[in-house]
Amino acid sequence: MTLNAWLPVFALMTSLVAALVIFALPEKGYRLRTAVNLGAALVKLGLVVVMVWGVFRGVDYGVSFTMVPGVAFALKADALSMMFATLSAVLWLLTTVYAVGYLEDSPNRSRFFGFFSLCVASTMGIALAGNLFTFFLFYEMLTLSTYPLVVHRGTEKALKAGRTYLIYTLTGGAVLLLAIAWLHGVEGDLPFREGGHFIDADADIHLSLILIFILLVAGLGVKAAVFPLHGWLPQAMVAPAPVSALLHAVAVVKAGAFGIVRVVYNIYGIEASSLLGVLEPLAWLAAFTMLYGSVRALSQVALKRLLAFSTVSQVSYIILGVCLFGPVGAAGGLVHLLHQGIMKITLFFCAGNYAETLGIHRIDDMDGAGRRMPGTSLAFTIGAFGMIGVPPLAGFITKWTLGSGALAANMDWVIAVLVLSSLLNAAYFLPIVHRLWFREPNGSWPRERRWGRLETNAWLFWPPLLTAVMTVVVGVLASLPFSPLSWAELIVLREYSP
Amino acid sequence: MTAPLLYALVGAMLCGIGLFGLLRLSHLLRKLLAFNIMGSGVFLVMVGLPQHQGGQDPVPQALVLTGIVVAIAATALAIVLIRRYYHLSGMTSLEGETTSREGGPE
Amino acid sequence: MTLWLMAGLLFTPLAWAVLTLLTDFARGRLVTWGGILVQVLVSLGLWLTVARDGGFYYGLGGWDAPLGIELRVDGLAVTFVLLTAVVASACGWHAGIYIDPDKPWHRYFWPLFWFLWSGLNAVWLGDDLFNLYVGLELISLSAVGLVALGGKASALRASLRYLLAALLGSLAYLLGVALMYGQFGTLSIAGIASWLTEHPVPAGSGLALALMIAGLALKTALFPLHQWLPPAHGIAKSPVSALLSALVVKASFYIAARLWLELGEPLGNLVSAQLVGLLGSAAVVWGSWLACRQLQLKQVVAYSSVAQIGYLFLLFPLTYSVSESVSLQAQQGITLQVISHALAKAAMFLAAGNLILSVGSSRVDALAGVSRFLPFSLFSFGLAGVSLMSLPPSGGFAAKWLLLQASLESGQWWWVLVLLVGGLLSAAYVFRIFRASFLESPESDQFYHPARSLEVIPMILALLALGLGLVSEQVLSVMALPFEVEGSP
Amino acid sequence: MMCPESVLVLLAVCLPLLYPAMALRAEGARAMRYVMPVLPLPALMLALGAEPGWQLELPWLLNGGLWAMDELRRLFLLLTAVLWTVAGIYAVGYLGDHHRRRFCVFWGLTLAGNLGLTVAVDVGSFYSFFALMTFAGYGLVVHEGTDEATYAGRVYLVMAVLGEMAILAGLLLASAAADSQLLTDLPAAVASASQRDLIIALLVAGFGVKAGLPLLHFWLPLAHPVAPTPASAVLSGAMIKAGLLGWLVTLPFGETALPGWGALMIVAGAVAAIGAAVLGVCQRIPKAVLAYSSISQMGLMVLMVGAAMADPGRAPVLFSVIALYALHHGLAKGSLFLSAGVSLPAGIMRRAAVWLLIALPGLSLAGLPFTSGALAKLAMKEGLSEDPLDFALAGYLSPLMTAGAVATLLLVLRYLWTLGGKLENRRNPPMLAAGWLASVGVSLVAFWWMPWEVEGLVKSPVWLPAPYQLWALVWPMLIAVALAGLTLLVARLVKQR
After folding, report:
1. Res D461: pLDDT
2. Which range marks the domain in which residue D278 is found?
3. Is residue A225 part of a domain?
4. Does residue D158 surpass a pLDDT of 50?
5. What is the band of C205 on the pLDDT scale with cuts at 50, 70, 90?
6. Which of A336, C276, C446, D270 sits most deeply, having the most CB atoms within 10 A of its CB?
């Protein structure tokens, strides 16, 4: 096998090996652990960049071998997988930096970073999976590796949240497994392929295909937090901030959304899905989730829970985009995969900063925090505006593209949903922004800590600012080559003309 | 009724008696004896049943011999364990706390 | 060469047993560790031979059946021989460190261990029904002895229950053998099968098969005949529990499976096949449910064995009157399940032993805080749990996948539900342990740290169980190796 | 190679956009306020110096950016730049210590948005700048931090967000119909789109929030008075015109006759012009009176917009009239707002001079001959004169305009009246005074040298109305004065009772 075939494996192994090394390191080995963490993240980013360039030029990366009789373990890098892989590689780097600062003097750091790396390895695997079976493999690995992160604090509340998380995700996994096995029984091993497999499926298997699709979406929808399968997400907020950030922006919810993208595009094929009539109901469901998540977010008092419900709402943008039949809408959905990640991670970083530096967990306590922590608050503001879809930030690009796509697909009602959702977003984000900048602080902060010159620990300070800058840049420079939008258009181009 | 069938039926009867004893008796030594009776029944079936095919079959003889050895070993082990159990707990049966040991929460 | 290998498999363990019987614990340990090395090499040698040349029949000492002992050396058997070597050597290694050498009765551990090993090899390789019985008895008696090594009254009680159940099972099996021989005049399974292809099925021979399988089911602890298992496995020393759960119960299942696969088609019927499957499903659900409710760590693991054994019995419905490919899938799935459960459960028991050693209590709620202190063992436990939950990429997952495929393709979709629900329930009890250990309780800082090697062993086994899924194709391909029906070399 | 206009336009937008970065360092933050007057200068140079017609392509920006300038945009840019400059000068003297840095940051951002949206031709950047202006404007509105300010801010924000969303939906639909990302392609596409009425409704409502269309105006009388005075000036003078500009560049003027929409807009304009005046004269706070005056004036412009919609043939002429009117109103209203913050110096002569300078832009609004207002009013009369217009409501336009003129002067008088009770006697800070004087000067004098072009109207240096025009301008003013006097008399009588 050539080096090309092995590149995806290497990309996967970097974080896997890092995980094992970190598990083996003693708790006290702070410097070494940080070095391993950051080194692995950088190496992986490098590998991903190489592969992005390769995929752009049309190089085929892939490796495959039979794992269980009749099913292959396949890794493959196509444009879609590179999109997700890039997201996870970039955000992993930042989150690692952030987590190093965040967990500065808390116990169980070896365990934390070990599972953290495992989690990213799983995400990478999900990105690079070449068929549904391999996808499922990493999907479940993700469930397992995130559980210790969710319950990391070891409090009763954390453990309860972890339990809810497991009940949801493992059940989802079981449903997904059923669907995959059934599909396998119907058609055999199906690699992800541009254009899908079922464009000329026999009429007599249509019913099975529809049922399988429902099962697949149900299984994936748990992680994607589609209503009514979203219940675990707000509870999982007890996890440390970097974990929430990663869960929301990259790993878990995205894995679900990415899976749905894969199923619709590379298993069923967009045209076949459309013919089967499964897209429209899914679009309605996604639209409903968008609104539902926002409405629930309105009444939250804890910042992280609010962000969680916002995620519920935002991830459904991706799904909605996938369901819009036509290249523009598809690009909108795909690009949101990245945009939502960047924006949401910014917000979570900021939430973490407020909690770590000032002890702020509730929205009422945020009054005037903008003066004490201008950098963080600026990042938060940008993230929040991005979520609302204010131009020229990332969220606007998504909304615009989705809206155009919906019009092209003659689904005009989507515009109303988009507008309504943006309004709701504004309704819960703008008051927070107002508090940050225009209210006077009410007395002292709940629990303030100080670090030197910067408003907070430097490890915590820079990641949100960087992601905020990215939020602006991917929006403003959306038309440059290799911007998320251009990349999404490339994927769609390949998808619609396989 | 042919001789082989008679043997087999008697063997089956012994088996039944042994089984009944094994399940219903509570004293461990009695259980052990019941086991032995059941074993004898099985051996009887084993040597008795195959003879209808004409002449003496050496194979069952050999099997039963081996079986008896095994049964002796098992009995010996059981006796050792029962004795030790009696020494430690002063009980001669397994009843008592047993029901609470398995199944539901303790 | 083959002669030496066969001798090495069946008789050297007996020799080690006698040797260790004569010495004390510490010397027995030395002998055993040397013996383990030999046994592993021999097992590997046989496996390689078969992998190269294919399987064969082997008449021991030149004597042929029916009076002599004839061995059937095929891919499946050598796989299990190798599995036994791996698990048993891990347990032996672990036990050497784990078991307290100062208690005088502990010196009997080694001979019993070796008797068990030779019995296992005899079962994997045995071809005629009676030799299987002898092997089975050898296993049972030494297993009972091992359980009794716990020394306490409760251990003896458990071992006596175990003994009685095992003996009853053996007798039922033996009665079946007697009936079979009376009917067919042969003890070879293949012989009976070929007789049946030429003659009409005699009335009542189904009863013989039912008796044998019922006896074996009792020894395998199929629901509702499982009550003897949890106390025995729960109370034994951890390495013993590992051996029992990983290998001993598999031996009786192995015989039952071989009987069913050869004779099930002519002698069995649909109702009984479904009934056995149903009992297996009940075992999965009930065992898992009880595992969730146990307060003792090892009881949790023991009940998990009850549940996992339930999966094995899905073999019966999934191979009865189905197409060739479905049957093959089911067999492959069950094989993987046996192997992965053996590895995973051994790892789990050993890790549980470490945890108990560390916190000084066997209660689940005593584990609070242990995740900080003993992460390595806990991680092994977790990895083993992954396989039990049949999540990818473990061997358990590969097994489940194959069984799912078989169920779906044969149209018996109800087993699908069992498989999925079983997976979820097993997650429930595994994560219950994790939940307990992740809890940060303020007073939990009195921990004893077990030796490093004790922690490494379960990790190796767990990783094997986990990695099995990735290489299951290769593992299964050994099973499909050509088999020479005629004679010995 | 980049032409000088491109450099200038980039500078014009980026300078205020990057200006908040000064706040990062303490020294920069202290110097920030002195930079404020400089920020709009590149834009001013661009508006005055460069001939319209250049364009700058920014293919990497959003969905492909294009910035350009035509006659219409030039006037709006000019108005924006001038007003922000004088307000900037004024602000240097006006600002206290209260959150000064924050005010400067939002000032810069709002300015960047306001300037950017006038030069943006592609939908993406137009909407971006519009949103930037809207949201940064919030910072100016709530700056004082009082309860009223917070309340006003909330209303402002709610309305603004609703407006933004209407605009988003409208632009999306329009751009999908046009299959283009350029504003210039939208009107034609909207005119022939199947969802024409929906798109127009969305755009009218969306921009109408900014422009203070009746029923969408609630935020305006709340927000303009509570904002710091320089901010009120730009809010009322420049930013309110952004809504107008939005209409002009997106709605299908000159493409097709939309009598229904035209009628609706005319009614809305009339309601705004008269209704706002009625409400305005009841106000006690000077700046609130001015805010209602802005609504009223915008109402007059809405009249013209309605007429342009109804009669595609007149649209080009009306466009230049609207632009002229916007320019005039922006400068005069800016000056009036700034005057709300001046203090009366000692000395009777000086006081009289100050009062005169306060009153003149107001009278200019009302159409005092020889002022920009007279020119604008006449141009409007010309543009809306009955003969060339061809739709149902055309006949009502003339009386409406007259009523509007009466209303305007009444409001101005009311403003002067309320102001009289409020002005303090002390020295003005020099920069504040300079800013205010500059605004008066710009409104009264510099206007004549500005590059407006309206068909049929004589340009600078000095424009003399014909006698009949003079009378047409003056008699509504006389009515207004008479009304005001009457009211005063009645009030006195009531008080004596």
Report:
1. 42
2. 253-497
3. no
4. yes
5. confident
6. A336
Q: Check CB contact of C168 with chain B, cutoff 8 Å.
A: yes
Full residue range of the structural domain in which residue C276 is found: 271-481
Residues C31-84 pLDDT 10s: 899 999 999 998 998 888 888 887 777 776 666 656 667 788 888 888 999 999
**How far out from the chain centre does Cα B49 lie?**
19
List, as one string, the DSSP characters of A141-206.
HHHHHHHHHHTTT--HHHHHHHHHHHHHHHHHHHHHHHHHHHHHHHH---B--TT-S-TT--GGGH
User: Residue C470 falls within a domain, yes or no?
Assistant: yes
As a three-state string, the secondary structure of A114-137 is: HHHHHHHHHHHHHHHECEHHHHHH
Coil, strand or helix at A302: strand
Closest Cβ–Cβ partner in D102, D128, D161 for A423: D161
Cβ of A163 within 8 Å of Cβ of C408? The answer is: no
Q: CB distance C141–B77 less than 8 Å?
A: yes
Banded model confidence at residue B104, pLDDT cuts 50, 70, 90: very low
Decide if C178 and B46 are in contact by the 8 Å CB cutoff.
yes
Q: Name the CA radius of gyration of chain A, rounded.
A: 21
B100 confidence band (pLDDT: 50, 70, 90) = very low
In degrees and rounded to multiples of 5, residue D357 shows phi and psi of -70, -30
Chain A and chain D touch, per 3+ beta carbon pairs within 8 A: yes
Print the domain residue range for A474. Answer: 289-498
Flag whether C457 is in a domain: yes
- Whether D10 is in a domain gets the answer no
Interface test with A, best of C374, C435, C441, C452 (most A CBs within 10 A): C435
- Flag whether A487 is in a domain: yes
Find chains touching chain C: ≥3 CB pairs under 8 Å: A, B
Question: For residue A435, is it within any domain?
Answer: yes
Report the number of distinct structural domains present in chain A. Answer: 1
Residues of C in Cβ contact (< 8 Å) with B42: 171, 174-175, 178
Q: What is the pLDDT of residues A390-412, one digit of tens each?
A: 888 888 888 888 888 888 888 88
Contact residues, chain B, for C167 at CB < 8 Å? 35, 74, 78
Domain count, chain C: 1
Query: Where does the pLDDT of residue C446 fall: very low under 50, low under 70, confident under 90, or very high at 90 and above?
Result: low
Q: In this model, does residue B51 exceed pLDDT 80?
A: no
Q: Closest residue of A to D158, CA-based?
A: A427
Instruction: Pull the structure tokens for residue C136.
Output: 């089975």
- Three-state secondary structure call for residue A362: strand
Is 0.95 topped by the overall pTM? Answer: no
Minimal-distance CA residue of chain A relative to C434: A148
Residue D411 resides in a domain:
yes
Give a yes or no: residue D439 inside a domain.
yes
Q: Is C54 within the bounds of a domain?
A: no
* Residue C434 with chain A: CB contacts under 8 Å: 147-148, 151
Concatenated DSSP letters of C29-81: HHHHHHHHHHHHHHHHHHHHHHHHH-BEEEEGGGPPTTTS-EEEE-HHHHHHH
User: To the nearest whole angstrom, how far is the Cα of C172 from the nearest Cα of chain B?
Assistant: 9
Query: Given C416, C439, C469, which is nearest A159 (Cβ)?
Result: C439
Closest by Cβ to D161, choosing from A426, A476, A480: A426
- Asked whether residue C44 is assigned to any structural domain, the reply reads no
Q: What ipTM does this complex have?
A: 0.83
